[in-house]
RNA sequence: GUCCCCGUCGUCUAGCCCGGCCUAGGACACCGCCCUUUCACGGCGAUAACACGGGUUCAAAUCCCGUCGGGGACGCCA
């Protein structure tokens, strides 16, 4: 039997989510690190659904996990479901039991919930069950009494369990301190520990890369691999992703802000999201942060993984870490226009805009540097798609250090100019600057009324480009509407003079 | 409670293994200035950290011990 750990062999890694909720960012990061390790080393990426908890598994969750993974856009090579491999798990349990390494525990389920953990100290085993004779155990089992199968952890031998973690280094623990964990539940279903190890052995997983919350479980897993007669894989535990309150990120405590679909819906680019997650607990150690996926893959090593937990900075008011947002903006800016446009279209559609073909490509370059999330494009570019501008305060038309009369002069003159000028960037630039000079205004003063008239607000993309995309007809129409607004404003103004 | 892990700017981190190049580097955020037709982008700059206490050493963020702090595991959940 070839040893999967033999140096030089292509690694086989796995991501094994349990379908009990949406895919959360911590799981996503584990998936990403596994993928990176596999692809960096030309190995195999296995996706395995750890669905042995029939009580908590849901189809919706399975869908949601695949949805999240598909969005990330990272592939995998093999796919398995533990629920389809139960025979293998049970056979392994039997094999372990026959070797005398496990025993039946007839204690009713949940009987010891109160004292198995917490204030009383660690629970190790029920001696009555561990010590029960083979005869009595067989008799009670034959009589149909339900039982859980527990691993008979070596006790009193002073045995030391050890493994070298790729991230945390040499780890040791006294076997006497490990509790007799369950292998099979009383309903016959394998537990996570059993199923996971049996499958890891069967699928010849060479490297287990997972969250640090499994670090102490690893000693149990070592025992299972040993009982199975399988070589233990190489372990690499990842520092945990924690919330600003310092506790492990969880769906239950922290809600949808930790779901990857929340990031997707807000307009994160998968590449940016991956880039962000990579930087949480890993560093290329060359001060690079904004990286393309290929670059990250080439640079990725387990040696670069840190040991300290990383905080994902979010609040209720602001659900996204500022660095994630910045990286997203960087990736957006790096996107070619056609690709950006394609990604933007669903957001415009969602907002009820129905851009004509090719229109988004015209708009995208104007907002590319002005949005940090794809979803922001809707607010940033609405006036390009709306037939009627959303109502704005006519006072916005008044330029800095100016008055309504100045605004009126600008608008009226602009109408003439726009009607007579070719609608290309340079012509408009030239014409409108001359207009400003003629009116004795600074460019900024002259442009603001026009900008507000055509965009409906002060903050907008550069004026000339915007006018070109909007086209003469729309611009003139909006200029006239602004004129009307100004008239009503000007009337009251005049009376006060 | 028991066992395990961790502790550098607000946050992500480099440096730690192999002490001196560290008056601790980068990034985000924040603030200021510049650029500029608004907003943004970009450029420049400022503020900001070695948890604490002992030791070893000519020299410690780096090595050792302790303390404190945080986290994780301890389930017939995964």
Task: Based on the model shown, name its key terms.
497 residues; mainly alpha; 3-stranded antiparallel beta sheet; 20 helices; disordered C terminus; RNA-binding
What is the CA–CA distance across the termini? 98 Å
| Class from helix and strand fractions | mainly alpha
Largest sheet: 3 strands, parallel
* Count of helical stretches: 20
Coarse morphology? elongated
How would you name the oligomeric state of the polypeptide chains in this document? single chain
On the 0-100 scale, what is the average pLDDT?
93
Content of β-strand: 5-15%
Major beta sheet, strand line-up: 1-2-3
Radius of gyration: 32 Å
Q: Which blocks of ≥5 consecutive residues have pLDDT under 50?
A: 115-119, 491-497
The residue fraction in helices comes out at: 40-55%
